Amino acid sequence: MLLVASMAAPAMAAEQSVGATLVDVLHQQGVIDDAAVAKLKAAQQEGGDKALNKELVEVLHQKGILGDDAYGKLSAQADKEKAAVPAAPMASAASDKPYDAGRPVDKTLSAVEEGFAKMTGDTLKLKIGLWLKTGWVSDDAGFSTGSSQSLTSGNQFYVRTARPYLHGQITDKLGWRISFDTAASTSILRDGFVWMDYIPYHRVTVGQFLVPWGLEGIQTWDVHMINNSMAVNFIQIPWARDIGATVQGKYENKIAGLPLMGMYNFSVVNGNSLNAADNNDAKDLVVRVMTTPLVPGMTLGGSWYGGKTHVTRAVGGRERDFDKDRDRYAASAEYLPPYIPGLRLKGEFLWDRRFFTNYVTKNVTSTAAPLPALNRHVHAAGWYTTAWYKIDGLQGPMRYLNGLEPLFRYDALDEDMTVSDNERSRYTFGFNYYLSKYARVKANWEAIHADGRLKSRSLQNVDNIGHHLFTSELEIWF
Q1: CA 398 to CA 57: how far, in whole Å?
Q2: Whole-angstrom distance, CA of residue 470 vs CA of residue 468
Q3: Which residue in 470, 471, 403 sits closest to 440, CA to CA?
Q4: Of 47, 249, 253, 424, which residue has the fewest beta carbons closer than 10 angstroms?
Q5: In contact, 89 and 202? CB cutoff 8 Å
Q6: What span, in angstroms and rounded, lies between the C-alpha atoms of 234 and 106?
């Protein structure tokens, strides 16, 4: 699993390294399993080829392929190489990056990419990718509230994502990325940024990117559930991408063999979402910090967002413009127990303060009590906890269970903490099944409970009734 899947793709080398090629060969020969490959890829993603080599030595020793003497020598050499030149940050900005898992037709795609690159010069490197998600949703409320919303249909087929990617690298220190979501009815441009690695151990990104704030909202590929948590949908998703600049720094080391990593992002953005010009002179500031606190498999994070929201409302019979404060906080924890390979635990708390001038309501037939006065700051809070386990390494008739990933999530949201009886909660049970490295089937059953007073001002509307939602999805990427 990718430990920090929220970040954008690393600068891609023209050819795969010896260590990465060796991992592929050992995997094909059955020496190492899928779980070990995922662990090795995560190490390479975090620290480059030197981190990959170090982790490969550990894996081969654990499997008994390397004896203690050979392990001691190779481990010391890997530590020395890794410490000699600390790896620069491997990420440019938060993003989806399904392509990190590999590509099923890599040779064909590489030939196409090389053809494009040669038209613009020998130094340009190009990568092409695609992420597609399509499925079916059924909501017993009589209208759909999950992957694709409708007030008149309780079940439907949908296409959530159809996103091609282009990643270009002009030099080892300069590159760009463009992605589009052709399933979107408006604002199809998703990513459009340039990254620069001219500052040692830092990367600067300028353009439109997934703003590094929180955890689940920027781990789009690594969420594993079909739908985001209600708190993330309400507090973060409408603001996930923005236009601006971000700086990422990263440090990693080991103390007595235990991991110690610190990573931060500092961003300045317009604060008016994707593909939109700024509507005020204030710029929004975003800070995100993550660390591994000397506990193998544990990652802790915290985020802060501060800015202004532009609102227009009637005062004295005239429309007047105002800039109102907008603040968001998030705290997260993620744990991959090293003694239970395949298990992953994750949780996050989110808090939000924003100014509302009206409510977003989609089902006006409710008999809920009158809503409180508007034109005021509203405080919202929510949280979720998630667990999933990927089965791997089974033999014989049970081998068909390899790639099965049962999962569970509980999440809750209070859209307005000053209003009583308006909380929502949800239990989600489901599974993913990996058809290959490049495709998975997903199925989720959600039991949603909502109190009756607050209608909804959520952009991802879930009405104030108890109901059940079943969603299935096919996801492919390369």
Answers
A1: 29
A2: 7
A3: 403
A4: 253
A5: yes
A6: 38
Q: How far is 222 from 216, CA to CA, in rounded Å?
A: 8
* Residue closest to 266 by CA, chosen among 252, 251, 284: 284
CATH dotted code for 89-477:
2.40.160.10
Q: Which residue has the tokens 């997934």?
A: 210
Q: Which residues pair with residue 475 across a beta bridge?
A: 133, 440
Rounded distance between C-alpha atoms, residue 353 and residue 35, angstroms: 41
The C-alpha atoms of residue 84 and residue 72 are separated, in whole angstroms, by: 18
Element at 79 (helix H, strand E): helix 68-84
- Per DSSP (E only), the strands in 121-201 are 125-139, 155-171, 174-180, 189-196
CB 128 within 8 A of CB 112: yes
Q: Domain segments of the chain: what residues?
A: 89-477
Give the E-state strand segments of 185-340 in sequence order: 189-196, 202-210, 241-255, 258-269, 284-293, 298-315, 318-335
Q: Tell me the CA distances in angstroms from 349 to 1, 180, 301, 381, one per residue in order.
A: 22, 30, 11, 8
**Looking at this protein, which amino acid is placed at residue 208?**
Q
Alpha helices in 121-178 (DSSP H): none
**Cα–Cα distance measured from residue 99 to residue 438, given in angstroms and rounded to the nearest whole number:** 9
- Determine the 3-state secondary structure of 437 from DSSP: coil
Tell me the pLDDT of the chain (478 aa) as tens digits.
Answer: 222 333 333 333 334 567 777 887 777 777 777 667 777 877 776 667 777 888 888 888 777 777 777 777 777 777 766 554 444 444 445 555 544 445 556 566 666 666 655 555 556 677 888 889 999 998 887 666 655 666 667 788 989 889 898 888 888 889 999 998 888 767 789 899 999 999 888 999 999 999 999 999 888 777 889 999 989 988 887 668 999 999 999 877 777 777 788 899 999 999 888 888 888 888 999 999 999 888 888 999 999 999 888 776 655 555 556 678 889 999 999 999 988 989 999 999 999 988 776 544 433 344 444 445 566 788 889 999 999 999 988 888 898 899 999 999 999 998 888 777 678 899 999 999 998 877 899 999 999 887 655 444 443 344 445 678 899 999 988 7
Q: In this structure, is the dihedral angle defined by the CA atoms of residues 134, 140, 143 and 149, taken in order, positive or negative?
A: negative
The 10 Å Cβ neighbour count of residue 29 is 8
Question: pTM for the complete prediction?
Answer: 0.73
